[in-house]
Design a protein that fits this description.
The complex is a heterotrimer of chains A (about 500), B (about 325) and C (about 270).
Chain A (H helix, E strand, L loop, with lengths): L33 E2 L1 E3 L2 E3 L6 E5 L6 E6 L3 H19 L4 H17 L1 H12 L3 H22 L3 H4 L5 E3 L2 E5 L5 H14 L3 E5 L6 H12 L7 E3 L4 H9 L5 E5 L2 H10 L7 E4 L5 E4 L5 H13 L11 E5 H15 L20 H16 L3 E3 L15 E4 L6 H4 L6 E7 L2 H9 L6 E5 L3 H10 L4 E4 L18 E2 L4 H5 L3 E3 L2
Parallel strand pairs in A: 1-5, 7-8, 7-10, 8-9, 10-11, 12-13, 12-17, 13-16, 15-16, 17-18
Antiparallel strand pairs in A: 2-3, 4-5, 6-20, 11-19, 14-15
Helix pairs in contact in A: 2-4, 3-4, 4-6, 10-11
Chain B lengths: L3 E2 L7 E2 L12 H11 L6 H14 E4 L7 H12 L13 E4 L4 H8 L6 E5 L10 H13 L4 E5 L2 H5 L3 H15 L3 E5 L2 H4 L2 H13 L4 E3 L11 H18 L4 E3 L7 H15 L11 E3 L2 H14 L12
Parallel strand pairs in B: 3-4, 3-10, 4-5, 5-6, 6-7, 7-8, 8-9
Antiparallel strand pairs in B: 1-2
Chain C lengths: L25 E4 L2 E4 L3 H20 L2 H17 L1 H6 L4 H15 L5 H5 L1 E2 L6 E9 L2 E5 L7 H12 L3 E5 L6 H11 L8 E4 L3 H10 L5 E3 L8 H9 L4 E3 L8 H4 L3 E9 L3
Parallel strand pairs in C: 5-6, 5-8, 6-7, 8-9
Antiparallel strand pairs in C: 1-2, 3-4, 4-10
Helix pairs in contact in C: 1-8, 2-4, 4-6, 8-9
Classes of the chains: A alpha/beta (about 500), B alpha/beta (about 325), C alpha/beta (about 270).
């Protein structure tokens, strides 16, 4: 006999399984109303007298005013970099140089949350990414390169490495602080000084980096930051006081820069666009391949030069894979970049949004089949739903042109040879993905793919120790690893 | 036993030697996906409902050599009314005990019980006994009143490639269990790879499991988020192919409400809202309930709680 | 009335803790009673070092580099204390900078000591440096701090764990260093320090079958041949290096080269 009272089970409350808005605290960062240029260790007003506003792409709200550097400002910055170079940075004991970079790395770790929030506000990427990817990698880049500063002779046996001088660096808006780290860390480690031009739509974390330099007590003029639009970059490229140019951005601008620098004898590194093939074989680990495809094109809203924007799926597995992919898209959360549950954030600018829309329209006009999961997009701000196109022709614009948005084009192949042929059939050559459980095939594919980075059974993996850069019109030169140091050195024989 | 076997439920499964060639799982990506899902945070308003659900999904368990009628009686009391102070806290799904204690549970819970009685069987936890002994174990448990049977697969047979034996035993246990609902314990902590977990999951489902379960709780590691994700993905594939929904039970090592909520996030994103029910998902746990009660009270009062206020039964 | 200071007790450092010698012995050095390690302490230290190998060698190189950098951070804070137990500020600064230098190698070693090998055949072949395991170090008596650091860091940065037989005359620097290590996020057991008489401890370590390498840079004159003979019983790697310099080639003898082959085929 039971003496435990009977309980009629109450009808369970309907479980409203909604993810909370889980906002990262915005007040950890407070922007100044106005940011001057960072030149010679000081924050200064632009001689141009011009300013512009940087806004949040998630809701178009203004964040701060930043300076529009003109020719005179660029000249001052290059001069400050030159003075700092001659005045001691290049002759500083390398072990001491290293310690400045270690300091910067540690400060980035200490202020990581503040910078991550700033990055998400200014650029639109989900806080989950800026917190878990951009900031840790940026700190890691400084930490890694700090260690090379006093070990360069080991990186280039039998050569005598020396710095180049003043490095002019122009970076894009998709990973603002991380791209700054990729450029500044090796340049400084190798003994150069820097004039950096951040992207027009994402200047804030670079300007906050100026404050990091102050906290690290970096000597004045070693790092200079000139904000502005494309014209500022052009002034910098044209300046005859630079000893090196490094550019990450679109292939079109990269070509323009290469033309501009023709005949000037200045070493250049270019990291440009891509239209990477993500190649899936029928013997892949299927659910994990789906995750890799999703990460490959929807990570950072597809604003990634090495994005896996073409899915090349083996025909024998195409149907189940695409089914799983579409199902997976339904659980992607598009929304407020500061919400910790957000997977896909805002498109970086109106201009970029227009470009994505135009290309997507062309895909539909070409007869490709479009799929977008049901998505409630906010009214203000720049948003685009994750998109998959099937029935895509190899020659279609959505299969050949870089969209730089959350849009995947799916094509099929039958054999490894065909996959290689299709993957390589592009003027780009930045990255590629290979999904198969067969080791020998991974290596066979890797040896034939004309791409600077091959990811096997993974995608979008970055590390300061791992060289990154492209073949063909995706650019030349490598960033990261021992190979990446070369860009910032000369070797007198 | 010949190499092929057909399934009663329409899911073709190639056995030895082809089983090792199906179902590759990439461990790095699986674990990364599970970790990512664990970072989700659910609405404050949903949290209470989630905690309520966790209680309703719990198979409150005691599986010790030292179990006595007194211990199991107390367990049953707690199962029906986990929080004597808060009557809105629901009963758990089931109690889970050794066969000898099933009669005690039946007496305490009564014939109209809403709390099910699950019994382990088949020479739990090792499974290293002849099949006849294991079947007798199952029949005895059911005869004594078990509503559910949690069996173990023969890991020795699985790891030495004798998949037909593993399959055959599950089929026969299912038969012996009669009307009782069958959970098949894979003991994922002994299987070594996620590939094996996926294969064992598919094998168990093919043989007629109503639920697949991670662990006996006697081996470490017991349940983990990645292993659960792996099993849920196998369940998803079987459902897509055959329409049959097999339930899942992670057991062992789930002591905190926060972790249990993460399991629910993994479940929700892999299989969808219809799976958020004790009919399809259970937690095999003992101390979890008290932590959930503490969290429920914290949600209701706004104040962090002390374990002193929750009875240890 | 002037204040009576609370004096430090100088103990061993084993498994992340500071135990006294199980033998209860101490000896007087540099005006202090210092623990005098026994063979059983040495046994415990090797056990702790072995237990720590999996975690330390399994950490990412980046993580190891950060932990070693933090060791430098902790040394910097204790610079005055360290200077008091060695030749002075100059030696302390050199030692801290040495730690920073080696810390920066952690995530570069594989790039300089390893690489892809172009074998004749359709195989992908690569070599990577891996830790040898537990390294026993006979600490150089001079310089008291810099010598120890110059031998310890090459072992650690390669992913190894260490058991140090500290200098008999100058053990305090080793204990101060242990305190810096203990506050640096270094996992327990990665560094173990046995103060006492190396003449007693070194042979135990040299003959211990679960020690992979033996650093004899600090071995007393005449003691090396016997230690090398003992080392032969388990084919230990026996190394000697600099007590005052730094080079990647100090790291290299304490790592193993592992080469992997895999076919390349469709």
């Amino acid at each position: 006999m039971s003496d435990i009272e009977h309980r009629t089970p109450a009808a369970p409350a309907p479980l409203d399984w909604e993810y909370a808005p889980a906002p990262e605290a915005r007040d950890i960062v407070s922007f100044r109303e106005r940011y001057g240029l960072y030149i010679g260790g000081e924050v200064v007003e632009p001689r141009s007298g011009e300013w512009f506003t940087t806004s949040s792409p998630a809701d178009e709200s203004p964040l701060a005013e930043v300076a529009q550097a003109g020719g005179e400002d660029v000249d001052l910055a290059v001069g400050a970099a030159r003075a700092a170079y001659a005045d001691g940075w290049s002759s500083l004991r390398p072990a001491e140089r290293a310690k400045y970079l270690f300091r910067i790395a540690r400060i980035l770790q200490e202020r990581a949350r503040e910078l991550a929030v700033a990055e998400s506000l200014d650029g639109g990427k989900p806080i989950k990414e800026s917190r878990d990817v951009d900031l840790p990698l940026a700190a890691a880049h400084f930490f890694y390169h700090a260690g090379w500063a006093d070990k360069l002779e080991y990186a280039f046996p039998s050569r005598t490495p020396r710095p180049l001088g003043v490095a002019a660096q122009i970076i894009p808006w998709n990973f603002p602080l991380l791209m700054l780290a990729w450029k500044v860390a090796p340049a400084l480690a190798c003994g150069n000084t820097v004039v950096l031009k951040p992207a027009e739509t994402t200047p804030l974390t670079a300007l906050m980096f100026a404050d990091v330099c102050r906290q690290a007590e970096l000597p004045a003029g070693v790092v200079n930051i000139v904000t502005g639009d494309g014209s500022t970059g052009a002034e910098l490229v044209r300046h005859d006081g630079i000893d090196k140019l490094a550019f990450t951005g679109s292939t079109d601008v990269g070509k323009a820069i290469q033309r501009e620098l023709a005949g000037r004898g200045i070493p250049i590194t270019l990291e440009l666009g891509g239209k990477a093939a993500n190649i899936v074989f029928d013997d892949c680990a299927l659910d994990q391949a789906v995750e890799g495809i999703v990460n490959g094109i929807y990570f950072n809203q597809g604003h990634v030069c090495c994005a896996g924007s073409r899915l090349l799926v083996q025909e024998s597995i195409a149907e189940p894979l695409i089914g799983k992919l579409k199902r997976r898209l339904q659980t992607l959360r598009v929304g407020d970049p500061l919400d910790k549950n957000t997977d896909v954030g805002a498109i970086n600018s109106r201009a970029q949004l227009d470009k994505i829309r135009e290309l997507v329209a062309s895909g539909e006009a070409d007869g490709a089949e479009i799929y977008q999961p049901p998505c409630v997009l906010p009214e203000r701000g720049y948003w685009f739903a994750p998109t998959v196109f099937t029935n895509v022709a190899q020659s279609s614009r959505i299969a050949t042109e870089e969209i730089f948005g959350p849009v995947l084009s799916v094509l099929t192949f039958r054999t490894p040879d065909e996959a290689v042929e299709k993957a390589n059939n592009t003027p780009y050559g930045l990255s590629a993905g290979v999904w198969t459980e067969k080791g020998s095939r991974i290596l066979w594919m890797a040896s034939r793919l004309r791409a600077g980075v091959v990811w096997a059974n993974t995608f979008n993996r970055f590390d300061p120790a791992s060289p990154f850069g492209g073949y063909k019109e995706s650019g030349f030169g490598r960033e990261g690893g021992r190979h990446g140091l070369e860009a910032y050195l000369r070797f007198d024989e | 036993m010949d190499g092929t076997a057909t399934l009663t439920r329409g899911f073709e499964l190639p056995l030895e030697p082809r089983l090792p060639r199906i179902g590759a799982v990439d461990a790095v990506a699986l674990e990364a996906r599970a970790a990512d899902l664990a970072k989700r945070s659910i609405k404050r308003e949903s949290k209470l409902a989630a905690l309520d659900l966790i209680v309703r999904m719990t198979d409150l368990t005691t599986l010790e050599g030292a179990d006595t009628p007194g211990k199991v009686a107390a367990l049953c009391q707690k199962a029906v009314r986990p929080d004597p102070v808060d009557p809105t806290v629901p009963s758990v799904a089931a109690v889970c005990v050794y066969p000898n204690l099933v009669p005690v549970a039946r007496e305490r819970l009564g014939p109209d019980r809403s709390v099910r009685i699950a019994s382990v069987a088949t020479a739990f936890p090792s499974g290293q006994s002849p099949i006849d002994v294991k079947l007798a174990d199952v029949r005895a448990a059911v005869e004594m009143g078990a509503d559910e049977v949690d069996m173990v697969i023969d890991r020795g047979a699985f790891l030495s490639g004798r998949y037909a034996k593993v399959y055959d035993e599950i089929v026969r246990v299912k038969e012996a269990a009669g009307p009782a609902h069958l959970k098949v314990i894979l003991e994922t902590g002994e299987l070594g790879t996620y590939d094996n977990v996926r294969r064992a999951s598919l094998l168990a489902m093919a043989a007629g499991a109503d639920f697949i379960k991670t662990s006996t709780g006697k081996v470490s590691p017991a349940a983990t988020l990645p292993v659960t994700l792996c099993m849920l993905e196998a369940i998803r594939d079987v459902e897509a192919e055959t329409g049959r929904a097999v339930g899942m039970k992670p057991a062992g090592g789930i002591r905190h409400a926060k972790l249990a909520v993460q399991y629910l996030c993994v479940l929700h994103e892999t299989l969808g809202r219809e799976w958020l029910t004790p009919e399809r998902f259970r937690f095999g746990a003992s101390s979890l309930v008290n932590d959930v009660l503490m969290q429920i009270r914290k949600q209701k009062t706004g104040v962090y709680q002390s374990p002193d206020h929750f009875t240890v039964d | 009335m002037s204040r009576l200071p609370v004096r430090k007790t100088y103990k061993l450092y084993i498994g992340g803790a500071f135990p006294r010698s199980e033998s209860g012995r101490t000896y007087e050095a540099e005006g202090q009673n210092v623990a005098r390690a026994s063979r059983k302490d040495a046994r415990d230290a090797v056990r702790a070092a072995r237990a720590a190998v999996a975690k330390w060698s399994g950490a990412t190189a980046y993580n190891r580099g950060q932990v070693l950098y933090r060791m430098a951070e902790m040394m910097e804070t204790r610079a005055a204390d360290l200077a008091a137990v060695c030749s002075g500020e100059g030696e302390v600064e050199r030692s801290i900078d040495r730690v920073v230098w080696y810390a920066g190698w952690a995530d570069k070693l594989a790039q300089v000591l390893g690489g892809a090998n172009p074998v004749a055949g359709p195989y992908f072949n690569f070599t990577i440096p891996e830790p040898t395991g537990v390294v026993a170090i006979v600490a150089p008596p001079e310089p008291a701090l810099e010598g120890l650091v110059s031998r310890l860091l090459p072992a650690l940065v390669g992913g190894n764990t260490a058991v140090v037989a500290a200098s008999r005359e100058h053990p305090l620097a080793a204990v101060e260093l242990a305190e810096a290590v203990a506050t640096s996020d270094m996992p327990a057991g990665v560094v173990n320090i046995l103060t006492g008489d190396p003449a007693e401890i070194a042979p135990i370590l040299a003959g211990h079958m679960d020690v992979n390498a033996l650093d004899l840079t600090g071995a007393a004159d005449g003691s090396a041949p016997e230690l090398e003979r003992l080392a032969a019983d388990s084919v230990k790697r026996v190394v000697r290096g600099t007590a005052t310099g730094q080079s990647v080639w100090e790291i290299e003898p304490l790592v193993e080269a592992k080469t992997v082959w895999h076919p390349i085929g469709v």
